[in-house]
Every structure is written in structure tokens, then in C-alpha cells.
């Protein structure tokens, strides 16, 4: 119901703001490269882990029966049918280098922890460096600090500013390079901001016309996808379905089709 998703959004916002303050303060104290995951640039900082632990504790204190899917720790299966999908710091490399484009990303989804089958109920993305708080509730629109967001419409690909990301695994980067070669000559330009969550919020806010990326993980896009969709974006794979999120495109419907078509020409399917 509306009341239930409004309560979830309130809780998600409160927790995201607390996590944002924690991570921002920790960043001021300097960061340590604690370990690396799939490649040397996939940097996991101690702050990343501690921030996820904080979010998880706050969620489960308030809602002990919910599931929790985070980037850092093993998933927790809940019994309520509600799952929290969390990227404690999306844009870890920006965080590491002190570039002010990293975010706390929290989505509350229903039904299943499987991204192909869940229904997003509420989402919050906080950029602690700017203080921006993006949020959405299913059916309730997308908002930035009290202002309703609306994607840019009627922008042809030739005039579109696209956002993208390259992932960190070698095979994803190779595939991403092919897509980049296909799209770059057709568009106004392409940005690589470094946080999928903020890219999707930028589409919602109209500071990008579209975003696409291959090889995202559910926690990278869960919150941003709802925020973009509630601002009027079509979000999904080139086939149009939410599918596997092997490839995500977010844009106003017309531009979405143009991008999907260009990708199909390049032999990209998802
Ligand atoms: C990454 C960022 C980046 C995107 C990668 C993600 P992380 O998330 O969103 O922009 O290109 O695909 O993995 O690792 O910083 O949480």
C-alpha cells in the first residue's frame, strides 16, 4: 500500500543519511585500500564494509524479518517478502580518490531478491559530497530535495549527452569498449561519472539524457533504476524487459529505442 511504501521510504532515507554522514566523516579521516576484488581497480575500502554493516544493523533493528542484499557481505534471506538492496558506497574509486561523486544507494524491493523478478517499492540515493538526496516511491514520482524530477524528453540521440560506466572486470571492459565505439560518434558526448547510482539519478534530473552500462550488479542500479523510472525513464535491456540487467539502458522512451537500436546494430543483446 501507499502507506507501507511511504514508511519504508522514510526509514530508507533516515538510514541512508546516517550512513552518508558516517562515510563522509570516515573519508575525511583518509581511506585505506583494504583489499581488492576482481581487479586492482575494484577497490574495497574498510569504510565500504563498515558502512554496509551500519546500514544492515539499522535495517534489521527496525525490520528484523526483512532480507538484505548488499555489495560486501553475504545476502540475508528474510521472511517478510521485503528485501533491502544496498550499495554502501557506489563509486568506490571516486571515494578513494576524493572525487565528489559517490553515493549511498538503498532500494527496498518486494517479492524476490532476484533482480529479474523484484518490484521496487522505495529508493534513496544520497551524494554525501553535495548533500543531494534523490528518492522515489513506486507510483509516487522521483524527487530531489523536494523538487519533482522529470527526464528530458524529445532529445534525439544526435543531441543526447549519455552517461556510461565500464565495470571493473576485463571482459566487461572489452565489451563496453565495443559499445562505446558504436555510440560515441552518434551522440553529443559521453560522460563516465563513476557511480551507476548517480548516473541513473542524473537521468532522472535531466543532467544526463540517457545512461547505459553493461555488467552492473543489482545493488549498483536497484535504487537508481526506480528513481529514473519514476522520473519518466524507460529502464531495461535493449529488448525492453528488466531481464537480467546484463545491460541497463535508462532514457525517455524515444531515446531509449534509438540507443537500443544502435546497440542491436552493434550486435549487443541482453
Ligand atoms: C561501480 C560504479 C561504477 C560502475 C561499476 C560499478 P562500485 O560500483 O557504479 O560507476 O561503472 O560498474 O561496479 O563498485 O563503486 O560500488
UniProtKB/TrEMBL annotation:
Family: Belongs to the inositol monophosphatase superfamily.
Cofactor: Mg(2+)
EC number: 3.1.3.25
Pfam families: Inositol_P (PF00459)
GO biological process annotation, one example: signal transduction
Name under which the protein is recorded: Inositol-1-monophosphatase
Source species: Agromyces fucosus
Residues reported to bind Mg(2+) 1: 71, 87, 90, 220
Binding site for Mg(2+) 2: 89
Superkingdom of this protein's organism: Bacteria
Keyword list, A-Z: Hydrolase, Magnesium, Metal-binding
